[in-house]
């Protein structure tokens, strides 16, 4: 039987534990993702979304609980070690690429899983170039003609599309999308979201995506999770989220959590 892509068991995260400011940010989270599931996560301010992704990625040590990726217990593994299994795309288009390197060089680094040693030793091979062109052409943004452009000169949307491509070149066991379209204008955000769906579903990549855009959370992905005060209060499979509207979702959140969804950044449209 295939292992789940991600298993989170009884995950608790505390900040400033044992002090008067103790904050129990994640409370007994249980979450299992089967290979290929694309889960969107929404929730109010401070609900624990980033803490959840940081716990999975390893950038935050785990207070209690267990995280397994593709059957491997990674609970005590470093970010670098987990990066062999996980790719993560952040909100800031500048964070995923090296601005002074060209598109080609950035993609070559991604192909070598970011190891400079392999990069300088091997350079960019002809086969790699063909693959890069093919991948870039699939974005339909004309970027296959910009291989020698410094990536820092591209627009935020172009960079984020390339970052996404780079994050998925080596088929990670798990893709973490951390509000990866939030810094883009609405039209570019829609383009990058459509590309995300295309890449993730074509390659069957297990994905966890935080978004403040309720419409995107409903439109994309195969499952929707809502977090409130460190707990998963709503967990909808594709068939249940199909046809739901934003007011339905807000009602569901209130019924399950007893709270109104309060989020400064939330986009209802
Ligand atoms: N490094 C930290 N030190 C102390 N408290 C923290 C830290 N990081 C997060 N918290 C607290 O943990 C709780 C969850 O925060 P988190 O950033 O995960 O929420 P979020 O759902 O991502 O919120 P937002 O949508 O507002 O970014 C909040 O109460 C927050 O203040």
UniProtKB/TrEMBL annotation:
UniProt KW keywords: ATP-binding, Cell membrane, Membrane, Nucleotide-binding, Transport
InterPro entries, alphabetized: AAA+_ATPase, ABC_transporter-like_ATP-bd, ABC_transporter-like_CS, ABC_transporter_ATP-bind, P-loop_NTPase
Subcellular compartments: Cell membrane
Residue ranges of domain ABC transporter in the record: 8-254
Main location, first listed in the record: membrane
Superkingdom: Bacteria
Chain segments annotated as coiled-coil in the UniProt record: none
Membrane association type: Peripheral membrane protein
UniProt key word Ligase: no
Gene Ontology MF term list: ATP binding
UniProt protein name: ABC transporter ATP-binding protein
